[in-house]
Description:
Chain A contains no helices and eleven strands. Helices cover 0% and strands 60% of the residues of chain A. The N and C termini of chain B lie far apart (36 Å).
Amino acid sequence: EDQVTQSPEALRLQEGESSSLNCSYTVSGLRGLFWYRQDPGKGPEFLFTLYSAGEEKEKERLKATLTKKESFLHITAPKPEDSATYLCAVSQTGANNLFFGTGTRLTVIP
Amino acid sequence: NAGVTQTPKFQVLKTGQSMTLQCAQDMNHNSMYWYRQDPGMGLRLIYYSASEGTTDKGEVPNGYNVSRLNKREFSLRLESAAPSQTSVYFCASSEAGTGAGNTIYFGEGSWLTVV
């Protein structure tokens, strides 16, 4: 069964304390892996798309990496404004849907 | 630069009432989607439209109907609302289908409560 699992469910970090969020997937025919950020009361905001194992993308304090089984979202020296829920999703070749994980709720404490 | 716009933002319905959620995108995208988001569950696809005049069921289509009015607009209708349809609804769009690796962009959401 195709699945997307994110861990941990929740993460509390001190400002400046780097860490990583995990997204493991078991889907056939992976076409892309997507990371979104979602603030309370808002829609998901697109961050990155990764297409093949070994690919990496960066944006400010965030860096996303992809292997054949999982993706990591590395957060370097986070700030309170990085607090949000981070969602991972995958698309399959030929399927017109994104399969989402349940997210990691990140809280960065000043 | 509006992106994907949904209305209404909040709605309370009584069981059995009907309503339509409206969605419009200004990015000239071909594909549009309706998702629902419930606590403890990932976003789940209700319906998908690859282009004007075409719609397909997603994972959880029961109790919903959709209309792709034109390239910009995609509406979601609840004919007889049930408490199980209490959720946050997101409209989204992409240039083409996600099967080709295209990115989906989301609206701000519509909070629906059925009492």
